[in-house]
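Entry for tryptophan complex. Fields follow.
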Amino acid sequence: MEKTGQREQWGSRLGFILATAGSAIGLGNIWRFPYAAGENGGAAFIIIYLIAVILIGFPLMCTEVALGRKTQKNPVGAFSALAPGKPWRIVGMLIVIVAAFILSYYSIIGGWSLAYMTKSVAAGFKPGVNYEELFGGHISKIGEPILWHGLFMILTLAIIESGVIKGIQKWSKILMPSLFFLLIAMAIRSLTLPGASGGIEFFLKPDFSKITFSTIQAAISQAFYSLSIGMGPLITYGSYLSRDDNITDNVGWVAGMDTLVAIIAGLAIFPAVFAMGYDPDAGAGLAFITLPAVFSQMPGGSVFGFIFFLLLSVAALTSSMSLLEVVVAWLIDERGWERKKASIGLGIIVFIIGLPATLGYSVLSDVKFLGMDLLDTYDFITNNMVLPITGLFTCLFAAYVWKTENVMEEINNPKGKISFGSLYRILIMVIIPIAVCFIMIMNLIEKFGA
Ligand code: TRP
């Protein structure tokens, strides 16, 4: 029960599982995973991805949740509670800042999605429209995308402002089941179209010859991104988890749901794309250009178009909630702010941080970083550069500062179906840090190399 001055706790185990799954399940599941699988050897990639989730993602997620539950704090407070002094506080701070930056562009994409959802009700998806121009036209306006970005931020802050139980938990319990339901409806529609098999083949046909170092890198990076590792939500949501709940079982559910949604998303998207004779594409182009064109050709396309953008908005909203909560929890714990003030104030600040990225398609379209527009730059810096660093430091912190036996004590108490032993120690002390350094170096070579 909520008492003043006392930290709120999830009302039930399900509250934690659905909220954390909501954080993990996002744009990464819907457009990043299916395409990465299709490009990198289909089922062969999925097998490597599963190994990455089990050996790297799952132990790191449990570690972050344990860090939050042990300290009952936001990322900055959590690191400083176990290692007083500046250096680790800086890592916590980096996590909080990055969460704010990711949120700022997540909210822009969430805004595009809301805009397309309303457009699909107003106008439907008709054939004969050039959807590339339509999308380009939408994002290169000035006022409209800013308005939708603002609206998306208002939705996010309104939920966070209501608190852990009345906001995050309540809305996760409504939004997550809806998301599953909508996604399954989309998958059934897509798989029953004539010509769907081309898409299934693209997505799932195993091609082990495509497995190279860069496939492994793609799988590990995707696992990090998709499970929201190294960015604070796991620590923060873990800090609201009861001491009576087992960490491994709960996190197992979250990782399992995240993977399942990614696979179903592939089955919802590619069969339809191939059945209508389009080429698969990655990222925003797939969701906002290819799919609208696909819907325009498909029987019942306007309804499924609406369902798709509703689903995308919901997926983005549950992730953006968790990002805002990271920063809000920091202001509440460390600076003694009230939740209401913190949510509104930060909502406004994050909205402003996002403005250059929205304007990157209009007035600021000449501003480029390594050939990327501003939104892609935000994404690149946060996800490709900072996420591995915070992930690496979290891992080193658990292994060498907090110490694995203490982490395991927190994780294994109370005991669940999976309990952590010496394998965890080897993973967290040696294997995971090496794997993270490997992806960091590969990322840098890819972008800056010859
Ligand atoms: N996991 C999210 C997705 O799949 C993306 C993401 C990365 C994220 N880091 C995050 C979401 C931190 C919330 C918080 O789309």
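NOTE: The chain has a mean pLDDT of 94.
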